[in-house]
Design brief:
Length: about 260
């Protein structure tokens, strides 16, 4: 290649003016360009492979990627049940839901969670104290799971991700909810004080929940329906919307394109 790169035309073309400098051979110039293109392509390929290896790490080398792909194909080997009952032993006044499931709660006995749905997903659901989640061995969150939860009154709920929570027949002093993500919460019954905080695009429907007062904070594009009798304190940052049923006293502050509306 060196000889080609440094080669010059020994004879001027017929149309080249007399005394002009000889021109580089066009074919050699093209070969040089192709060579540099090949070298750069090889360098980019090496960098991409190194980056992929550093990101995947042991998950690729240990076969974790294959296990992930395999676990999402079917519903197990047919030996796993589609429904299990987990004993609930409450350890605090707060319950956390950290899986994309539909959870329905009703106060009563016994204290338990009946989990049903895709057998593979059901086998990985864990209820540890007051935390409902998948175990570390489950990588496919898209499979349908529903949970029927009964037990003592729960003053505080935490919902993260895209799960759905339905609370019915409530009869307690206070209800405090925190939604992080795109989760959805609905409630019916009666409480004295309702506190709702949404971070993200989640929604809370409390139009059928009788409450004396309600406090709502939304950061993002979340939505809430509330129906307090006496007073509503509302703060919206972003594009969230709050609908207030009835005619309570409303203290509101909106930053962004969000709205606070009153409806009959």
């Amino acid at each position: 290649m060196r000889a080609c790169i440094t080669a010059w035309s020994n004879h001027a073309s017929p149309d080249q003016p007399s005394g002009a400098s000889p021109r580089r051979n066009n074919r050699c110039t093209m070969n040089k360009t192709l060579a540099w293109t090949a070298v750069l392509s090889l360098a980019v390929a090496v960098i991409c492979l190194s980056l992929a290896n550093s990101i995947a790490g042991n998950e690729w080398r240990g076969g974790r990627w294959w296990n992930f792909a395999s676990s999402c194909r079917g519903s197990g080997d047919g030996t796993k049940p589609g429904s299990v009952t987990l004993v609930w032993q409450p350890i605090s006044s707060e319950f956390q839901i950290a899986l994309p499931a539909t959870v329905t709660y009703r106060p009563g006995t016994p204290s338990q969670a009946v989990v049903s749905g895709d057998p593979e997903a059901v086998s990985h659901v864990r209820l540890s104290g007051n935390v409902l989640a998948f175990d570390d061995g489950f990588d496919c969150d898209g499979r349908p799971v529903s949970v029927q939860l009964t037990g003592p009154a729960v003053p505080s709920w935490r919902l993260s991700g895209s799960g759905r929570l339905e609370l019915s027949a409530l009869a307690q002093e206070a209800l405090d909810l925190r939604i992080s993500g795109s989760g959805d919460v609905r409630a019916s019954g009666s409480v004295q004080d309702l506190s709702l905080r949404i971070s993200g695009s989640g929604s809370g429907d409390f139009g059928k929940l009788t409450a004396k007062t309600a406090s709502v904070q939304i950061s993002g594009s979340g939505n809430a329906d509330i129906a307090p009798r006496d007073q509503a304190d509302i703060r919206v940052s972003g594009s969230g919307n709050v609908q207030v049923h009835g005619n309570p006293k409303i203290n509101s502050h909106v930053s962004g394109s969000g709205r606070v509306e009153t409806v009959p």
